[in-house]
Amino acid sequence: CWNNEKSFNVHLTLTLTGPLDHDHNHHEDQAHHKANPDRCDGIEFDAIVPDENGHTFFFKGDHLWNGFKGPAQVSSAFFKELDNYHHLGHVDAAFRMHNKEKPEKHDHIYFFLDDKVFSYYNHSLEEGYPKDIQLDFPGVPSHVDAAVECPKGECNSDSVLFFKGEEVYNYDIATQSVKEKQWAHLPNCTSAFRWLEQYYCFHGHNFTRFHPVSGEVNGVYPKDSRHYFMSCPNFGHGGEANVPKCSEVTLDAITSDDSGKTYAFTGHNYMRLDTHRDGKHTFPIARTWKEVTNGVDAVFSYSDKIYIIKGDQVYIYKSAAPSTLIEGYPKSLNAELGIEGPVNAAFVCADHHIVHIIQGQKMLDIDLSATPRVVASEAPLPISGIEAGMCSRDGVKVYVGSEYYHYETPRLLAFSKMLQEPKTITPDMMRCVE
């Protein structure tokens, strides 16, 4: 496994997605040098927003930080019209639009100042902007404090949450309707940020994670953002992490759900592998599946649900964020799948109803569409020590230590007389170094 004390202990270890532009506007940078703010001093951000490439910008006054490391730079180095044409000293709020129904708007950055809105794409101001907020977002007040996008599936529809004082305005993008609510238990947000399908309200130098529909806060908050969202000396999660060698990486489970989200599990933690734009990062399993507190033995996805096996128990969660435990679970392995544990690995192929359960050096096939569920077939395997497995469009991969074997189908895995050559886990697959 990734060593929990060494490498997988990283809660949010983040890196710049590109080099800082130290030469751009050199003289202007020199003029601002003495006034450059230092976010490690503990400051309150005006806005936080990612661009269409996943580069995250933190705004304070007329400065910004490009990514989670590095010094402040003048905002005009990246969004020149904010300063060159409009002489803005700051922005009130910003978000990245999620609206796949209108590609001409999707992934554009919207900045808000007083009663105006600015729309940017590829760091260029769109023609016709700035506009009055009411023209683009009717019903949304001026002088907002924060804003964050909320895609359908995480909210009831593609939406934007606007914050102003204690008021929250839920703006439905398709209908252009606004629902106003109060989340008194949530601090007044001066900036808000959606990252890896989680929602963060920033206030002072702290943040609070919240549910985008109910505003519910789970866990111990507020937390100091310097521990998690930036690299600062003497702060727990902000320094350089010990990234494991790929030869040290082993998995307890791996699965991909119906929406394409891919999760790798090891120890008490998991990693999202499909978030190429936002990077690969590790989190405690209990952060997403809060009832699972002691690691996993096997995980598979079926019919918009994730099945987590630990010991002789099966937990079933809805795949859609936030993950919700199905009522009546956990249940015993015997009651759910008609088998006894332990289970080493499990996987389901897309558009199929068979879960392939690996126990030692045998594979059991169970029809998930049948009632009751029983073992339909059993086959010996040519490989011993399998710890995780997943079926995807390019076939079946089963993991043994830091290596994996690739077969085109489960049947070839079970009945092939030729043992495949193992392949090694690479940095492209996991967060590791060679």
TrEMBL record:
This is Hemopexin. Belongs to the hemopexin family. Gene3D superfamilies: Hemopexin-like domain. It is found in: Secreted. One of its GO terms (cellular component) is extracellular space. Binds heme and transports it to the liver for breakdown and iron recovery, after which the free hemopexin returns to the circulation. PROSITE patterns: HEMOPEXIN_2 (PS51642). CDD domains: HX. It comes from Oncorhynchus mykiss. InterPro entries: Heme_transport/Cell_adhesion, Hemopexin-like_dom, Hemopexin-like_dom_sf, Hemopexin-like_repeat. Keywords: Glycoprotein, Heme, Iron, Metal-binding, Repeat, Secreted, Signal, Transport. One of its GO terms (molecular function) is metal ion binding. Pfam families: Hemopexin. Hemopexin repeats lie at residues 42-82, 88-140, 141-185, 186-232, 248-292, 293-340.
